[in-house]
């Protein structure tokens, strides 16, 4: 059971992640690094939506896993895109190296906080 300390800790880490991404944009005066926030916020959505759309059968374990696998693929695509986008922008000399590093670290902190929140506060289903 997650309590108030977990909520405070996760919100502190989330705030640090957003601070790093915003500082990577503001300090280097290039706001393209804010696209990382969008990719990490959108990343858990396909996994959640495809998990809800899957056909859960109590008797057969292998039925309907294609939709879940597609959701996991899209989630992985968005996570990798959140790392690759600053690397691509740095490689094309659109942003500086410090901005790319701060953006990647901040984005990973944001995504890790979102995943930790869902793991700590998911409800168990009783049948």
TrEMBL record:
The UniProt entry lists membrane topology as: Multi-pass membrane protein
Keywords carried by this UniProt record? Membrane, Transmembrane, Transmembrane helix
Q: Where in the cell is it found?
A: Membrane
Q: Name one GO biological process term.
A: late endosome to vacuole transport via multivesicular body sorting pathway
Q: Which family does it belong to?
A: Belongs to the OB-RGRP/VPS55 family.
> Can you tell which superkingdom this protein's organism belongs to?
Eukaryota
Give the lineage. Answer: Eukaryota, Fungi, Dikarya, Ascomycota, Pezizomycotina
Cellular component terms (Gene Ontology): Vps55/Vps68 complex
The protein's name is Vacuolar protein sorting 55
Name the residues that span the membrane: 7-25, 31-49, 70-93, 99-121
InterPro entries per UniProt? Vps55/LEPROT
């Amino acid at each position: 059971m997650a309590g108030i300390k977990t909520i405070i800790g996760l919100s502190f880490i989330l705030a640090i992640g957003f601070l790093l991404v915003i500082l990577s944009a503001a300090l280097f005066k290039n706001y393209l690094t804010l696209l990382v926030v969008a990719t990490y916020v959108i990343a858990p959505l396909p996994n959640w939506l495809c998990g809800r759309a899957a056909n859960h059968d109590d008797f057969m374990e292998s039925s309907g896993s294609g939709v879940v696998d597609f959701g996991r693929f899209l989630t992985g695509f968005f996570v990798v895109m959140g790392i690759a986008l600053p690397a691509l922008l740095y490689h094309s000399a659109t942003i500086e190296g410090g901005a790319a590093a701060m953006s990647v670290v901040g984005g990973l902190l944001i995504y890790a906080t979102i995943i930790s929140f869902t793991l700590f506060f998911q409800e168990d289903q009783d049948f």
